[in-house]
Write a structure and sequence with these properties.
This protein is mostly helical. About 70% of the residues lie in helices and about 5% in strands. The protein is built from eight helices and two strands; from the N terminus they run H-H-H-H-H-H-H-E-E-H. Helix 7 runs antiparallel to helix 8. The radius of gyration is 20 Å and the shape is globular.
Length: about 250
């Protein structure tokens, strides 16, 4: 088994085993990070006149805040990915990435306006509150996940473009935020049992009985297939949708 191939015991369908590069690849959750960044693009694509530099800055900020910082904090909590990245390295990576994301946001405030300050504060609260399970774990729920990593990126991607809160596209943005929340809820409902089967169960067998009395046995891999297959399809669908909206709006 090479580092480029997913192991049967990898913590996710995109997970890798076999060294430092494999550990960081797995930590970054590439399909899910791209999914999250696509929400930013969808929000930005709804404005009449896109500022490409602002879009790039917003995507970079979310990559640092979610792709690196949030995922590093998540790995610190019980080592769910089983990486060999040291605790100190994870803390440093998380702190520097979150600070970098906040700095990018602060530099964009003169263009986007004071509403972006609220977004920056909310983003920091979401990363720390969700991944460290602060506030009694109030954010660490299915709905919390959907709002923090679904609806919020769409809203920030839109607001960072300075569209004006009363602009006609605000209604489209509100609908997109709700769509991202419901889609993220679907992601959570699929990924939760998938993580349970892949990370917590070494073996599982389910026997299905048909009306005629015949039986079919489903093992671990067969149970994982529809869950992870759907997640893989959605992780490709959302970025493609973001690209389509971006191209259609120009």
């Amino acid at each position: 088994m090479t580092a480029e191939q997913p192991s049967a015991t990898a913590p996710a369908f995109y997970g890798r085993r076999g060294g430092r590069a494999a550990d960081w690849w797995t930590l970054l959750h590439p399909p899910y990070t791209l999914w999250n960044l696509s929400y930013v693009v969808i929000g930005a694509a709804l404005v009449p006149k896109l500022n490409w530099a602002m879009l790039g800055a917003t995507v970079a900020a979310f990559f640092l805040a979610v792709g690196v910082s949030a995922h590093a904090l998540d790995e610190l909590s019980g080592r769910p990915l089983g990486t060999g990245i040291s605790t100190s390295t994870l803390w440093v990576a998380s702190a520097l990435s979150l600070a970098g994301a906040a700095l990018i946001g602060a530099l964009a405030v003169p263009y986007s306006g004071p509403v972006l300050i609220v977004c920056i504060v909310a983003g920091v609260v979401f990363v720390l509150g969700y991944n460290l399970e602060l506030f009694g774990g109030g954010l660490h729920t299915d709905l919390g996940f959907a709002i923090c990593w679904g609806g919020f990126p769409v809203a920030v991607g839109f607001l960072a473009q300075r569209p004006g809160l009363l602009h006609a596209t605000s209604f489209a943005a509100a609908a997109a935020v709700l769509a991202a929340i419901t889609l993220s809820l679907a992601q959570r409902r699929l990924s939760t049992p998938a993580r349970l089967i892949r990370r917590r169960l070494t073996d599982v067998t389910v026997t299905a009985t048909r009306p005629d009395g015949s039986r079919t046995t489903c093992g671990r891999e067969r149970l994982l297939a529809p869950l992870e297959g759907t997640l893989q399809a959605l992780s490709a669908t959302v970025p493609l949708l973001a690209v389509a909206l971006l191209l259609a709006s120009r």
